[in-house]
Inverse folding.
């Protein structure tokens, strides 16, 4: 079946602009995660959605970052007033509801803020 | 707090040689541990996972890892490196209790295989 898809694959934006990144999880996966991967760094957790529960936003670095998810489907990550330090690859993953369930990762969106 | 440390940001091995990528963790409760591989311009792919069953875990592409609680380690090994193993490898930890199930990642180790 189809894996996790993300769009766009690449995004170049000017400092101060808003951007929206999209994630389509694997059908039937109740959990969805956003991570950020900066150059030379590991992945940083941003936000976690599980079904209709309140999302865990503890990883969001500032109030310029927000994310939404409609039910158990598509999610969008929005970054307002982008800064150069927001440049990174943003990865989305989805999984079943259990802690042991594997997270399946999308190919990522490479964001460059100029 | 949980953390993962990968020793060596870059490891080079000759084709056919042993691959050893080191991972140490810190966690207040027994964690679940994962190794992911990332090929250039691709997403992460799960190699193997430890979820408190057997301490020696076998994964895809001939990789295996051993969970050693006394050493808080989960090193990744492969007996004989192949050119196609060149990639970046990430060790990750997940809290095994109730709550949020995000992964905590190490900074990654880039593996180069020399012909």
């Amino acid at each position: 079946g189809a894996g996790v898809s993300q769009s766009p694959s690449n995004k170049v934006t000017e400092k101060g602009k808003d951007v929206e990144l999209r994630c389509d999880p694997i059908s039937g996966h109740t959990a969805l995660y956003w991570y950020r991967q900066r150059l030379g760094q590991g992945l940083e957790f941003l936000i976690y959605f599980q079904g209709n529960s309140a999302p865990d936003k503890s990883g969001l670095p500032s109030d310029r970052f927000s994310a939404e998810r409609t039910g158990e489907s598509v999610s969008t990550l929005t970054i307002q007033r982008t800064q150069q330090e927001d440049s990174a690859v943003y990865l989305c993953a989805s999984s079943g509801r259990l802690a042991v369930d594997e997270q399946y990762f999308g190919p990522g969106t490479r964001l460059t803020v100029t | 707090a949980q953390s993962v440390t990968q020793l060596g940001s870059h490891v080079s091995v000759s084709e056919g040689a042993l691959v050893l990528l080191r991972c140490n963790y810190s966690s207040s409760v027994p964690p679940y541990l994962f190794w992911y591989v990332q090929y250039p311009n691709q997403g992460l792919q799960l190699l193997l996972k430890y979820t408190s069953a057997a301490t020696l875990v076998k994964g895809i592409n001939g990789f295996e890892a051993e969970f050693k609680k006394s050493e808080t380690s989960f090193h990744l090994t492969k007996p004989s490196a192949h050119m196609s193993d060149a990639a970046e490898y990430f060790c990750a930890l997940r809290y095994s209790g109730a709550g949020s199930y995000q992964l905590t990642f190490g900074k990654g180790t880039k593996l180069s295989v020399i012909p």
Q: What stands out?
A: Chain B has a mean pLDDT of 91. The first strand of chain B starts at residue 3 and ends at 7. Chain B is about 0% helix and 55% strand.
